[in-house]
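In the previous chapter we treated chains in isolation. Here, by contrast, the input contains two separate entities that must be folded as one system, with a combined length of 325 residues.
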Amino acid sequence: MINVVSAEKQAVLASDNKIQFGFWVYIMTDCVLFASLFASYAVLRNNTFGGPSGAELFSLPNVLTETLLLLTSSFTCGLAMLAAHHKLKRSTLMWFGLTFILGVGFLALELTEFRHLVMDGNSWRRSGFLSSFFTLVGTHGLHITAGLLWMAVLMFKVLRNGVTHNLTRKLTLLSLFWHFLDIVWIFIFTIVYLLGAA
Amino acid sequence: MLLNLIGNGKHKQANVNTYITGFILSIILTMAAFLSIEYHWLDRTSAIALIIVLALVQLVVQLLFFLHLGQEGNPRWNLMIFGFMLGIVSILVFGSLWIMHNLNYNHDHRTPDQTNSFIIKDEGIRK
């Protein structure tokens, strides 16, 4: 059978593959970063310095809500990518819009939780445990914030230019990033919150 | 209508069903973990083992159904570097825990003399 893909198209696809692989490598390094934060948390977990422990501070219903918001946003992100691959502008914007709203909801709950902790005097300065808690969970929250900014920018570009080839590639990278953040959250809610409350 | 919104999910590894299945499985695994802790289904040690297993299963579910890891054609570079990362992370986490455990054993709020006596007693060293 004749190869129907032109040389030019092949070059573009090869370049896309390299870019996507490069981003995947970055995600792997981000995993190492989070692993070091998890290791620090594991070491400092019980260093409460006379202050409250996780069991006393964490609200499981709140964390469950955060988890379901983020998990659903990962799902809607997947659906958004399906729409993007089919070049459906409205659906892509709608699903990414939903992903964005769910992400903001997650962040709002998390920031509220942080605010209560700090207002009660349980900031990162209170104990080693709280230092490592804020660093780990805070770093994840920063990643979410960056992801939301990135999402807003890409949605704006799709609104302006439609679902172009290049935008689809960028959206793919964003979706990789977003799924990765949900995966890190699985370990945060398990190791920090559930293990803390057990 | 869902299909109209996102296009017909035909063959390809990534289709509607992949995401729906992954989503439902993740919800089940998440709820199981939360409920088991909230309602104290098990004793502490078993509960911890359960939630860790549930987390690892959900990791695999999300890697397969959301990230489609391992479903690329050969050479499977993504999978390989993922494996490499797991190796590095294992060394990092296990190594940190091992070192800190040793430090705790060797120090733990004791003076050097107290540490000396403690180790002698703990390890059964006799002159």
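The mean pLDDT of chain A is 96. Chain A is about 85% helix and 0% strand. Compare these points with the single-chain example from earlier in the chapter.
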